[in-house]
Design goal:
By secondary structure, the chain is of the alpha+beta class. A hairpin with a 2-residue loop joins strand 1 and strand 2. The protein has three domains: 92 residues, Ribosomal Protein S5, domain 2, CATH 3.30.230; 34 residues; 138 residues, no CATH class. The protein has eight helices and six strands; from the N terminus they run E-E-E-H-E-E-H-H-E-H-H-H-H-H. Helix 4 runs antiparallel to helix 8. Strands 1-2-4-3 form a four-stranded mixed beta sheet. Strands 5-6 form a two-stranded antiparallel sheet.
């Protein structure tokens, strides 16, 4: 199924006073660029997280935010900065001695100083951490992909409409093309007849000129290639694989054929249809930039 590159997903998993929350956001990008922001205690899981994401995401600028909240007693460790505490107490004693202060230095007083006591979340078991995180990650990934697919379906419908219109233009050009030669032949014959009234003119030279014009204006090969590109694009839109980069190349080829048809046609009506066609191809190119 066609997927957009933009998307958002959120997942959460709670277990025994522990909660993991995962958010995934993505925007358009030429390559697959994944940035993971997670608590320092979980750095050991980053490679697992990245592999899980890469198995489902092939293109886009993806930002992943992971948070962990715990109220489990065994996960929280109180840490005392002993060197800092020593320095505080030492300086307090100096002040007490210098100014002959009678108050005792209390625990309550020392504990008020900043950065002396801190609470750290700490879970050492990697497997246990992964068992808690993985459900939240998969839940976020599922909703993220679902959103990408919904947007992809809208893009697919829009592209199919544009392809149908281009195919109609190709058929009109194909029907119009033989008339260009016939009309040129008539104009050339009438013009020569006017210039050489009463005189004979070389019919073979006239036919040669018409043949050369027909060769210069022949667009059958370009129409065949363009039709082939349209069929390929239509088939690719039904693919289950990421196709964004392939579509980029195919759109370039379609535009090249349209330009050649416009330059060779030598017919105002065909040129106008080519302009309409190139306008639709450009719209398709812009939409393709949103596809994974």
């Amino acid at each position: 199924m066609l997927r957009s590159m933009t998307g958002y997903g959120r997942g959460e998993y709670c277990h025994q006073n522990r909660t993991f929350t995962v958010e995934i956001k993505a925007v358009n990008h030429r390559y697959n660029d994944i940035t993971i922001k997670l608590p320092r205690m979980m750095n050991i899981l980053e490679e697992r997280i990245r592999k899980t994401l890469q198995s489902q995401i092939s293109r886009g600028k993806t930002d992943v935010y992971i948070s962990f909240e715990t109220h489990a007693k065994e996960d929280v460790h109180i840490v005392i900065n002993e060197p800092l505490a020593d320095s505080y107490v030492e300086k307090l004693q100096e002040i007490q001695t210098r100014y002959d202060l009678k108050d005792n230095i209390s625990i309550a007083l020392v504990a008020k100083f900043p950065d002396l006591i801190s609470a750290e979340k700490h879970v050492e078991d990697e497997s246990f951490l992964w068992e808690l995180l993985n459900p939240a990650l998969l839940d976020a990934l599922h909703s993220f992909i679902a959103m990408r697919e919904r947007e992809g379906t809208s893009i697919q419908q829009d592209l199919l409409q544009k392809l149908s219109y281009i195919q109609q233009l190709v058929e009109k050009i194909r029907k119009r093309s033989p008339s260009v030669i016939i009309e040129y032949k008539e104009r050339l014959h009438n013009r020569v007849s006017e210039l050489l009234t009463g005189n004979d003119f070389d019919q073979s030279r006239l036919l040669t000129e018409i043949t050369l014009f027909a060769d210069r204006c022949a667009i059958d090969e370009e129409l065949v290639r363009l039709t082939s590109h349209l069929l390929q694009l239509q088939t690719m839109l039904s693919s289950k694989e990421p196709i964004g980069r392939k579509l980029d190349f195919l759109i370039q080829e379609m535009n090249r054929e349209a330009n050649t048809i416009g330059s060779k046609a030598n017919d105002l009506e065909i040129v106008q249809m080519v302009i309409d066609m190139k306008s639709e191809i450009e719209k398709i190119r812009e939409q393709v930039q949103n596809i994974e």
